[in-house]
Amino acid sequence: MSGTRIAVVAGDGIGLEVLPAGIRAVDAVAEVHGLRLDWHHLDWGSEFYRRHGRMLPVDGLEVLAQHDAIFLGAVGVPDIPDVETLWGLLIPIRRAFEQYINLRPVKTLPGVTNRVRTDEVIDLMIVRENNEGEYSEIGGRAYRGLPEEAAFQENVFTRKGVARAARFAAELAVSRGGRLTSATKSNGIVHTMPFWDEVVRDTLTDYPSVELRSELIDALAASLVLHPERYDVIVASNLFGDILSDLAGAVTGSIGSAPSANLNPERRHPSMFEPVHGSAPDIAGQGIANPIGQIWSGAMMLDALGHRPAAAHLTAAFEHVLAEGVRTRDLGGTASTEQFTSAVVAAVGGLA
Ligand code: NAI
Ligand code: MG
Description:
The strands form two sheets. Strands 2-1-3-12-11-4-5-10-8-9 form a ten-stranded mixed beta sheet, sandwiched between helices. The model has no long low-confidence stretch (mean pLDDT 94). 49% of the residues are buried. The two termini are 25 Å apart. The chain contains eleven helices and twelve strands. The protein has helices at 15-32, 46-52, 60-65, 82-96, 159-175, 192-204, 217-226, 238-251, 292-304, 308-323, 337-350, and strands at residues 4-11, 37-42, 69-74, 101-107, 123-129, 139-142, 150-153, 179-184, 211-216, 233-236, 259-263, 271-275. The chain is globular and about 55 Å long. The structure holds 1,4-dihydronicotinamide adenine dinucleotide and magnesium ion. The site of magnesium ion has 2 residues, from helix 8. Residues 242, 246 line the site of magnesium ion (MG). It comes from Agromyces intestinalis. Residues 5-344 form the Isopropylmalate dehydrogenase-like domain.
């Protein structure tokens, strides 16, 4: 019997360091739970771009489609425009495989001090719409180089797109106690945001037990810093969700710990699991990157593949290591990527 097929794209910078750490940790837990995982390494990213002029091969998406999941590190290097790396790799994968949910848990971790308030436990989920919204290709530049030069970009919000994000968030809210916050800006953005509000409200009529609040994104951002413990599930458009999740991740400690899942909830296509952070060129190559974002993304992958006990085992293992005081530098500790990862592997065995 063949195992679960996982496509691996380490990418660039610290992606090349945290991704092997993530695989070691996932493999350790997979062994305990008797799961067979077949990792299929793909050397796509900026080096591939330098050789071939593209981020992934012409048939790259077809190759990925033959896998059960995609495990990604980070892409981006200082001397290639980010628009190439993002639109050449990440966004095509998210859209081709209808990964319309970007799920980003934000949690207080043991031994890690919240940056803003230390006394409250933060435990929330950000559900970011991942296929449309503000990140659109529709628009253009006019009068290049002239004083009249102008740029235009159209937002794209569809009833189907907003409703499926709202539905996913509502289901999650039901499973977590029933509070849902929708990020909006209907006072300033007068076409798409009132439409967002309307479709979210319509969708939520199917979930009478969920308490829905709409909050303006500017006030919501401030409130997430001041009172993060008040939030449970937040549903947001592509741009708002992107910003809120970096913000919330920073509030709980370090962006290096934040995981994410790009989900095709119907499982018609592979989903993709990656840390929230980027390739961190400022610390790449030093062996000091925090691997938690990658390891936790691996736990989310196990969960999405239906291996819930293994996923819970893995998160318990890195939380145990943190509680013992082992931390990387971004969290105020001295452990290297390798030392932290070895401690997680040992904890997986210890907690078995
Ligand atoms: P970044 O997330 O790479 O780094 C921001 C700051 O956080 C840096 O000071 C970095 O050292 C620190 N940091 C990030 N991850 C860390 C970790 N695991 N452990 C310890 N410290 C960590 O964001 P930045 O600098 O804006 O972008 C760098 C490159 O990454 C750019 O090319 C950008 O486009 C790309 N990027 C890629 C993403 C992806 O692959 N999904 C997401 C975000 C950025
Ligand atoms: Mg981001």
